[in-house]
Design a protein that fits this description.
The complex is a heterodimer. Chain A is mainly α. Chain A folds into 2 domains: 32 residues, no CATH class; 230 residues, MetI-like (MetI-like fold), CATH 1.10.3720.10. Chain A contains 14 helices and no strands. The radius of gyration of chain A is 22 Å and the shape is globular. Chain A starts with a helix and ends with a helix. By secondary structure, chain B is an alpha+beta fold. Chain B has 2 domains: 226 residues, P-loop containing nucleotide triphosphate hydrolases (Rossmann fold); 70 residues, Beta Barrel (OB fold (Dihydrolipoamide Acetyltransferase, E2P)), CATH 2.40.50. Chain B is 29% helix and 33% strand. In chain B, the strands form 4 sheets. Chain B has a 6-stranded mixed sheet, sandwiched between helices. A 5-stranded antiparallel sheet of chain B has the order 13-17-14-15-16. At the A-B interface, helix 10 and helix 11 of A face strand 6, helix 2 and helix 4 of B.
């Protein structure tokens, strides 16, 4: 490739990145400090804002471990056990990636709503699902489900099952083999999957927006608060929370970049 | 520990991997399972280890029924063709694995691992990872790992199959010597008849899921049970209903009553041995093995007409 063409291509790629990614992000940072750090601090230390971050972290703290365990078990089932329907399970795991989160939220709404299949039963037993933490947990778990399994499945295929068989012949039972042979072999895939799952949980908006009811100080997550603040013309507040979310994403991104080469050499 | 395999059959879908196989392996013996690929030899070995389940039949280890036992309860050491090294552990940790699982005292583990690393000549490699070893070293580590829990039976699945010729030859001699020292009942799978003959006391020849013959190397070569064994173990030429080994043919420059005419197609010098490829008067190719001296005396050349006569032939009913 000629030198001018190569430079041209690079310029196009950089311009695209700048226009689509860096520009808007930089704008958010710029706007947040627009009216001074004091104002930014005020909007972040607002009890409702703190509560929103707390809700977001609680959701992540429940959904990430749950989906990590599920993802590893699911990947083991898909790769190691030959059972009828393994292909279907493999396809269904991907469903949350293909489905719009709003649709997920809506279906949960229908399922747990007053006239829904499960909603009636829960209401009769005095358990509040919709417009409360339980439905938000379910929505978050649903949308962040595939990431660990997606990372672990190819790694499990690649390492094969000979190491596990060797461990069995050396006297190790199933559980010991999992902890001492399988898990160390797939650890980078699991960590990478956890990072992606966390990022997805922190950023979730659509499904949670439908089922939570946006109750300030109660069922409001950080992303929902950004939307609310924006709609109430509290632009600095919206930008402030956006910044914190963006910083979290950057941390996740940096973590990913550091993990990736290790995964390649292990 | 003896291994008795009785009437074992195994199918994979439409493929009959093993068909009513019965083999007895005596305590302390060194046995080869020899056969072409798809003959069922690896499947049989994996069934003995408990890594595969037979559809029918029985496995007895030291006289006890082991058919339903899981691999970790059988007390067998298994060595895989592609090493199956624990990549995230050092050589020392790999070898210690079976001992740590059994919760042996720490100083015993340390001592035993050192002994084994000496035995497989990997002293000084204890802190390396498998990725930092050559193929031959990795396989020796896998052997040490399999030997660490002092198994009653050592099973090796094409152990030298992935190695180059020189390392293979070294490890064969080494395995033979190891067996002489430990007298552990050992069974190894190979598709290489030379390897089977060189290492094993007893060779089980398998083909299409069945046992064709069980015999010592010499008997296998001199008294093959059927045409398959005759042609698979060593080279053989077919003359009508009888079979002749390439070294059991006499080559002369002039005819005499019982000889057959043939044309030299190619002469290959392999050191002491000279291999001559010929074509019969009816066009069928066959091979003759001569010593260097014989070949020099005959001065064979491509296109030359010679006369051959079998010294020893074998026929099968």
């Amino acid at each position: 490739m000629s030198v001018p063409r190569r430079i041209g291509l690079r310029a196009v790629a950089l311009f695209y990145l700048a226009a689509v990614l860096v520009g808007p992000l930089a704008m958010v940072f710029y706007r947040a400090f627009d009216r001074g750090a004091g104002h930014l601090w005020d909007s972040l230390s607002d009890p409702n804002a703190i509560h929103a971050f707390k809700i977001t972290l609680i959701l992540a703290a429940i959904a990430v471990p749950l989906n990590t365990v599920f993802g590893v078990v699911c990947a083991l089932a898909i790769v190691r056990r030959r059972f009828p329907g393994a292909g279907i399970v493999n396809a269904i795991v991907d469903l949350p990636m293909a489905l719009s989160p709003v649709v997920v939220g809506l279906s949960l709404f229908l399922l747990y709503g007053r006239t829904g299949w499960f909603g009636h039963w829960f209401q009769a037993h005095g358990v509040q699902i919709l417009f409360a933490l339980p439905s938000m947990v379910i929505a978050t778990v649903f949308v962040s489900l595939p990431f660990v399994a997606r990372e672990v499945v190819p790694t499990l295929r690649e390492i094969g099952d000979e190491q596990e068989q060797a461990a069995h012949t050396l006297g190790a039972g199933g559980w010991t083999t999992f902890w001492r042979i399988t898990l160390p072999a797939i650890r980078w895939a699991v960590i990478y999957g956890v990072v992606l799952t966390t990022a997805r949980c922190l950023g979730e908006y659509g499904a949670v927006a439908v089922v939570s009811g946006h109750i300030e100080g109660q069922t409001e997550t950080a992303t929902l608060r950004v939307q609310d603040a924006y709609e109430n013309f509290d632009l600095a507040g919206a930008y402030g929370i956006s910044i914190v979310l963006a910083v979290m994403s950057v941390i996740v991104l940096v973590a990913m970049t550091f993990l990736k080469p290790k995964e390649a050499t292990s | 520990m003896s291994i008795e395999i009785s009437n074992v059959s195994k199918r994979f879908g439409d493929f009959q991997a093993l068909d009513d196989v019965t083999v007895d392996v005596g305590t302390g013996s060194l046995t080869a399972l020899l056969g072409p690929s798809g003959s069922g030899k690896s499947t049989l070995l994996r069934i003995v280890a408990g890594l595969e389940w037979p559809d029918s039949g029985e496995i007895r280890l030291a006289g006890e029924d082991a058919t339903a036992l899981t691999p970790q309860k059988r007390g067998v050491g298994f060595v895989f063709q592609h090493y199956a090294a624990f990549k995230h552990m050092t050589v020392r940790e790999n070898v210690a694995f079976g001992l740590k699982i059994r919760k042996r005292p720490k100083d015993e583990v340390t001592r035993k691992v050192k002994e084994l690393l000496d035995l497989v000549q990997l002293q000084g490699f204890g802190d390396r990872y498998p990725a930092q070893l050559s193929g031959g070293q990795r396989q020796r580590m896998a052997l040490a790992r399999a030997l660490a829990p002092e198994p009653n039976v050592l099973l090796l699945d094409e152990p030298f199959g992935a190695l180059d010729a020189r390392v293979r030859a070294e490890l064969r001699v080494w395995l033979r010597r190891l067996h002489e020292e430990t007298h552990t009942t050992t069974v190894f799978v190979t598709h290489d008849q030379e390897e089977a003959m060189e290492v094993a006391d007893s060779v089980v020849v398998m083909n299409r899921g069945r046992v064709e013959q069980i015999a010592g190397p010499r008997e296998l070569y001199d008294a093959p049970a059927n045409e398959f064994v005759m042609s698979f173990v060593g080279q053989a030429n077919r003359f009508g209903d009888s079979w002749v080994r390439p070294h059991d043919l006499e080559v002369a420059l002039s005819p005499n009553g019982t000889t057959r005419e043939a044309m030299v197609e190619r002469v290959t010098h392999l050191g002491f041995e000279v291999r001559v490829e010929l074509a019969r008067d009816d066009g069928e190719p066959f091979a003759v093995q001569l010593t260097r001296d014989e070949a020099e005396r005959l001065e064979l050349e491509r296109g030359q007409i010679v006369y051959v006569r079998p010294i020893r032939e074998t026929t099968f009913a």
